[in-house]
Design goal:
This protein starts with a helix and ends with a strand. Strands 2-1-5-4-3 form a five-stranded antiparallel sheet. A five-stranded mixed sheet has the order 7-8-6-11-12, with helices on both faces. Strands 9-10 form a two-stranded antiparallel sheet. The chain has twelve helices and twelve strands. It is of the alpha+beta class.
């Protein structure tokens, strides 16, 4: 028989169950080790006897617990520079610029009637150390990242209220961590679903393969942090320029793919491509600089240019190559 307790104690995630009054019902081995206590010794005690939580963070914790119990879904603390909820000094990092472990914390409802929640703690210290080293070079950049993180948190909260996402693992497996767009895994799933549905209905859908022009030069000249901010801006622009029923995905690096369902002909896709090219090339304000980026787009159409994921992506990529060769900042439709 599988020993579930042993499995829980073997994972590199902190798990503890508490109620709205912060009484402890369970902690796994990870929490005990990083808090320098014995797991059985803290059960039945109050959380504040285990962690010295500041009044400000205590209010925030109680607010997130209330949110999780009220909505019946997860509530998140997202790690930010010099940000933690529980002061744990036993980080996996041997030498850290932070006094305490940097954490991502997820609060999941466990027993709503008894007002109990399960708290998941992820050690993000190594990641946050790299982020802090970049942030300290520019106060303006630090402010921008803070605003971006706040925006992402708001989007995550709104999204979770609508779909009542069951666990954070699903999001990490299906969405890009920088832009919050769909990643390759989710893109593949949605494209396969479109193929199956449209084979039955006889309808068509399009694949738009976008690549930012000369993006490597931007990274090399201005830095990857500025490049990341441009990618975030472009992602938001693509979302605003498309329908909610369309899928916008980050395919990798500065490449994006958009699935456009329920179309009649390639002219519709060409119209969308023109709209996206115009939207992307609008000036962007970054570090007191007015920057402008352009994009090239390759287009393929189901079932004319392919009947599966690989064919449609490959043919859209070939069309993108032609658009690049013909001067960039334009689009091309695949031809057999």
């Amino acid at each position: 028989m599988i020993n579930c307790e042993k499995i829980i104690d073997s994972i590199n995630v902190g798990i503890l169950t508490i109620d709205a009054d912060l009484n402890i019902y369970y902690v796994n081995k990870w929490v005990a080790v990083h808090s320098d206590v014995e797991a059985q010794d803290v059960v039945g005690k109050n959380l504040l006897s285990l962690f010295n939580v500041t009044p400000e963070r205590l209010k925030s914790l109680q607010r997130h617990i209330k949110t999780a119990l009220t909505l019946g879904g997860p509530s998140f603390f997202t790690a930010d520079s010099n940000h933690y909820l529980f002061p744990m000094k036993n980080s996996i990092t041997t030498k850290s610029i932070f006094e305490f472990m940097q954490q991502d914390v997820t609060i999941m409802p466990y027993n709503i009637e008894k007002r109990q929640v399960t708290v998941l703690i992820y050690d993000q210290t190594s990641l946050m150390e790299e982020k802090a080293k970049c942030n300290k070079e520019s106060e303006d950049l630090a402010r921008s990242i803070k605003v971006a993180n706040a925006t992402i948190r708001k989007l995550e909260t709104a999204k979770n209220k609508l779909i009542k996402q069951k666990d954070i693992i699903y999001k990490q497996a299906h969405y890009d961590h920088l832009t919050s767009l769909a990643n390759r895994t989710l893109l593949n799933q949605r494209l396969q679903l479109l193929v199956e549905n449209n084979q039955t209905s006889g309808k068509k859908f399009g694949v738009l393969f976008l690549d930012l022009d000369n993006f490597k030069e931007i990274n090399d000249s201005l830095g990857h942090d500025v490049g990341d901010m441009i990618l975030i801006h472009v992602a938001k622009t693509l979302l605003l320029a498309t329908r909610k029923s369309d899928t916008v995905a980050r395919f990798g690096g500065d490449e994006f793919i958009i699935l456009v369902d329920d179309i009649e002909e390639t002219k519709t896709l060409e119209h969308i491509a023109k709209k996206l090219i115009s939207a992307v090339q609008q000036p962007i304000r970054v570090r007191h600089l007015d920057l402008s980026v352009t994009t090239s787009i390759g287009i393929s159409l189901f079932p004319d240019h392919g009947s599966d994921f690989n064919q449609l992506i490959k043919n859209a990529d070939l069309a993108l190559y032609v658009a690049k060769a013909e001067g960039r900042n334009t689009y091309k439709v695949h031809h057999q």
